[in-house]
Every structure is written in structure tokens, then in C-alpha cells.
Amino acid sequence: xxxxxxxxxxxxxxxxxxxxxxxxxxxxxxxxxxxxxxxxxxxxxxxxxxxxxxxxxxxxxxxxxxxxxxxxxxxxxxxxxxxxxxxxxxxxxxxxxxxxxxxxxxxxxxxxxxxxxxxxxxxxxxxxxxxxxxxxxxxxxxxxxxxxxxxxxxxxxxxxxxxxxxxxxxxxxxxxxxxxxxxxxxxxxxxxxxxxxxxxxxxxxxxxxxxxxxxxxxxxxxxxxxxxxxxxxxxxxxxxxxxxxxxxxxxxxxxxxxxxxxxxxxxxxxxxxxxxxxxxxxxxxxxxxxxxxxxxxxxxxxxxxxxxxxxxxxxxxxxxxxx
Length: 323
Known about the structure:
Layout: E1 4-5, E2 16-21, E3 27-32, E4 36-41, E5 46-52, E6 57-64, E7 67-72, E8 76-81, E9 87-92, E10 97-103, E11 108-113, E12 117-122, E13 130-135, E14 140-146, E15 149-154, E16 157-162, E17 171-174, E18 181-186, E19 192-197, E20 201-206, H1 209-215, E21 217-220, E22 225-226, E23 229-230, E24 235-240, E25 246-251, E26 256-260, E27 265-269, E28 277-282, E29 288-293, E30 308-313, H2 315-322
Antiparallel strand pairs: 1-30, 2-3, 3-4, 4-5, 6-7, 7-8, 8-9, 10-11, 11-12, 12-13, 14-15, 15-16, 16-17, 18-19, 19-20, 20-21, 22-23, 24-25, 25-26, 26-27, 28-29, 29-30
């Protein structure tokens, strides 16, 4: 069950940084280190857009089905009209931008950069003006939106910011894991979040203290051993199902596993992908899962084969998880 490969014409020439399905269609946005933003129509099996930029693309997101935003190594935030292909610069950091998220609830997008700043931007304001910039002590390597709140992974902690009141974090939660958080993703119903660390551990957390006490837990989801010794493997990405209480993890050795959050059990493990699993994305109804198989520049031993994207059909697996 490897899934179907996307036929992109010309191969992607450098590592894939992020893939994201559109909010209300099966269009897939692809950002990569080869400085090209791609938009692929999964239903029609057609590459709709290729936009070449100056710097490497480190993240991307949809503003809506007609517009997208990118985070570049050159420090620029660009917005694209996905129909016309036109683009404009809407903001800038002093160093490479590693994460970008857009909030439909507030009309803001948020960026984090190696300049150690979180910036909050209002799409209704003149380009280049941020609402607020928060200087932080460390790099934010992963972000996720949870309604009107932003979750930012900083080292081994998760900060929560209220997008309606930008005076700093409203809550900071120390991780129960010993190693750096690699990714943080919010549950669609915003009752909690899941984090993955560089040592292969996953933590399921809930905002309600009673729920956290009863249902919160940590487990090593991708246990590996070499020569009888533990072998740490990064959890590169996590995707939460939009309809069911399940999530999928992808690691740096090419393994992807679907988990039941409530029952705390493995539902399905896909055959190993050709390369590291760099990014994961469910479509709007959770019947498709996109998997980016790509090296990630994290380990010298990674296989540097051409990056590929696979599409898995998951309707039967979703039904199994709800039974």
C-alpha cells in the first residue's frame, strides 16, 4: 500500500519542506528547497502552478483556495494568486523564515524566523507592516493554529499566543519529553495538541486539566534499535485527521503510522517510503493523505534520491478507526 505517486513532470530538484492540502479542495501546495512553489490538482492529476523564486522555500500555507503564502530563506513572505500566478511581497524578517500559518478566524498570518522573532501580520494592512513582533529566546521550529490561538514549539516547551491580544504568550507548557520538540499540531476541535520530538517520542496533550490528567500521555511511536541499543529517530511531522480522533506520524527513516488518540493504539503502518517522511497532510475530509518522501538535511546518512509525493486513499482506514 505504497500509494500513488504524483506525476509532476520535471522532478523536484531539492528537499521538500512542506505539503498542504487546500481548505476546501484537493489541490496540494508544495514548497521545496529548489525555490519553486508548486500547486497540484490531485483530482485532475495536473500540475496547476510552478512559481520560481530567489531563495529556498522553507514553508507554505493557503490563505484560501485562491491564494497562498510562502516563507523563504531570503526572509521574505510572498503571497500568490493561484489563478493568475502573480505574486507580491507582504512582509519580511531579518533572517530565514522557517514557519508560516494563516488564521481564517482573525485574518492574520504568523511567521517565525531564525532572527528569533514571531511576527503577526494582518492581511488587511499595508504590506510590510506587522501587527506585533515577539522576540523569543530560541528558534520556533514548528507552529500550529488552534482556533484563535497559536501554538509555538520552542525547545521542549509549547507557547500559546492569543491572536486577539498580542501581548506575549498566554500559556506556556513544559513538555514531558527530554528532547527538543520537532513538530506540534493541534486537534481540529481545538481541545488539545500532539507533539513529536527528535528522539521518536509523541506526546498527546489536552487543555482541560481533568482531561489531561485522564487522557494525556507520552509514548515512543517509532522505536528503533541497532545492535541492541536504542536508536533515536526524529518524528518529522504529524497530521491530525479532520473528522476522527486519529493522527498520523512520519519519521526520518521513512515510516508512517496511523494512531488512535483515545485508544492509544496503532491502527496501521504503511510500507517504508523510499526516503525520510518530510511532511504529511490530510485533505479536507480526511479521505486522502499526502506523504512527502524527501531527505531533510538532518542526517548525513539520509538517502538523497529525488523527492517524491505519494497520495494514500484512507476511507476504509477511517471507518476502521471509528468502529
